[in-house]
Amino acid sequence: MDMGTKQEGFEGEIRIVVPPLVLKESALTARFNTFVITDIGYYPKAKNHFCKRMEGSSEHILLHCVAGKGEVYIDKEKYNLEANQYILIPAGSSHTYQADHLNPWTIYWMHFVGKEAKAIVEDLFKRIRNGSNILPFDGVINTSFNRFCQLLSQGYSREILEYISLNLPHFFSGYLYPELQKESAEAEKDIIAQSIGFLKLHIGDRVELASIAEHVHLSVSHFSKLFKARTGYSPIEYLNHLKIQKACYLLQFSDKRISVISYELGFDDQYYFSRLFKEHMGSSPLHYRNNVLADNNKIH
Predict the structure, then answer these.
(1) Does pLDDT of 175 surpass 60?
(2) Which among 41, 145, 128, 44 has a CA at the least distance from the CA of 93?
(3) Mean pLDDT of 87-106
(4) DSSP tag of 10
(5) What is the pLDDT averaged over residues 107-111?
(6) What is the DSSP string of 146-196?
(7) Count of alpha carbons within 13 Å of 66, Cβ hemisphere only?
(8) pLDDT value at position 294?
(9) CA–CA dist 77, 238 (Å, integer)
(10) Which domains does the chain have, with CATH numbers?
């Protein structure tokens, strides 16, 4: 049984959960299966952050502390976690972790799986056991992590998910070989990024395909073909992904009624919104909210 407390959202936090439907669809590609992020985020001064999973998690969990402190128990072995230290909890390991009451930690965190993940987890866990887990959150680690968050906040296109999957070994190389860290070049904006920005800006509107194409100065047919080739989805399907991502956040961190959330995201029909949400997330909006309230840390 998982138990956790997180009384309210942490100011300035980042939390992104990749929908199970997207993970299932993307699992068909070999490049995606190598390394997969299921959840990722950042909790600043995470007061009352606590999690207990007696049966462990189905994903590996990385916690990197950059300020404050806390403690982690993995299979009953205690690890203190302070600024510039990280911990990695292997999948299936019974564990408990909590922020210090007086000086709560600020952490970057990630849940991940994948065919090639186990070997890296084993190597990192050896470093943790011998106390070699002191590492500033900078260089390739900081750059890559923030890039993953930035990309996933734009949605879950095939292009984004495969890019992250292929770059996760590079990210973990910063932990395995910290002396060889190098900054990654910043990705340039392109037409697809501009159109996704337009979708995010109008997430609560009824956006027509023609208006998106007009924003990037392309014909509807050419834009649609280009967008589908790059992301694996039509622009409207992609907009729905962004709406569901926003809905997950509002269901957890607001008291707004589901009908209000549905309306704010541009759905006149609450039942259609609920069906779409269940298709993506595997549960209804109400069940999702109740599960988060009952066991908040399960998805963290």
Answers:
(1) yes
(2) 128
(3) 96
(4) P
(5) 97
(6) HHHHHHHTT---HHHHHHHHHHHHHHHHHHH-GGG--PPPPPPP-HHHHHH
(7) 13
(8) 73
(9) 44
(10) 1-185 (2.60.120.10), 188-300 (1.10.10.60)
> 17 pairs with which residues across the strands?
39
pLDDT digits (tens, 9 = 90+) for 182-230: 443 333 357 888 899 999 999 998 889 999 999 999 999 999 999 998 8
Specify the pLDDT at position 44.
95
Can you tell me the distance from the alpha carbon of 203 to that of 264, in angstroms, rounded to the nearest whole number? 9
Q: What are phi and psi for residue 102, nearest 5 degrees? A: -90, -30
Q: Give the tokens for residue 1.
A: 């049984």
For 136, the token pair is 């500033």
pLDDT digits (tens, 9 = 90+) for 58-92: 999 999 999 999 999 999 899 999 999 999 999 99
Rounded-to-integer distance, Cα 18 and Cα 213, Å = 27
Tell me, what DSSP letter sits at residue 9? P
Report CA-CA distances (Å) from 37 to 19, 23, 113.
Answer: 11, 9, 7
- Higher pLDDT: 149 or 253? It is 149
pLDDT band per the 50, 70, 90 thresholds, residue 180? low
Vertex 158, ends 224 and 201: CA angle to 5°? 60
List all residues 6 or more positions away from 117 whose beta carbon is below 8 Å from its beta carbon.
35, 36, 60
Exposed (0-12), middle (13-18) or buried (19+): which is 201, by Cβ within 10 Å? exposed
Per DSSP, helices labelled H in the chain are: 20-26, 30-33, 117-129, 139-152, 158-176, 191-201, 209-215, 220-231, 235-253, 258-264, 270-281, 285-294
